[in-house]
């Protein structure tokens, strides 16, 4: 006599959606207060629209008011000759706004666009040399 065997499909629980630490508001869920700092960029400037960021968890909101694609590198300055890149947002299109979650320590940072491009008419545009950098000083908490 044949017995019927029921095969039940394994039911694996759905994984919760992963939070993107660079785009979302991941810390809001934990109840932490995240400061927001707006940075405006264009030809040929990088500027904070408000106050300098505090130390700790900060959401950088970058708006490209220019006609060209730009990028933002966040560079930690350690003394006069030491520095290292700690974050980067590339390919920010004209009119685009991008967000980046970042943990600031007290000290000096440089924000820079280091794109070097050759235009159709042969001009070479070095964004940094044209003025796309600024320094920010993050105070002790
Ligand atoms: Cu640029």
Question: What does this protein structure show overall?
Answer:
- Helix content is 0%, strand content 48%.
- By secondary structure, the chain is an all-beta fold.
- It has a single domain, classed as Cupredoxins -  blue copper proteins (Immunoglobulin-like), CATH 2.60.40.420.
- Strands 2-1-3-6 form a 4-stranded mixed sheet, with no helix packed on it.
- The radius of gyration is 22 Å and the shape is globular.
- The site of copper (II) ion has 5 residues, from loops.
Q: What is the approximate shape? A: globular
- Poorly predicted sequence stretches spanning 5 or more consecutive residues: 1-31
Q: Largest sheet, order of strands side by side?
A: 2-1-3-6
The secondary structure category is mainly beta
Distance between the termini: 78 Å
Number of domains: 1
Order of helices and strands: EEEEEEEEEE
CATH 2nd-level architecture = Sandwich
Taking Cα atoms only, what radius of gyration do you get, to the nearest Å?
A: 22 Å
Strand content: over 45%
Overall pLDDT metric: 83
CATH class: Mainly Beta
Question: Main β-sheet: number of strands, strand sense, barrel status?
Answer: 4 strands, mixed
Could you name the CATH homologous superfamily?
A: Cupredoxins -  blue copper proteins
Annotated CATH topology: Immunoglobulin-like
Ligands, deduplicated: copper (II) ion
How much helical structure, as a percent, in the residues? Answer: under 10%
Give the tally of β-strands.
10
Give me the number of helical elements: 0
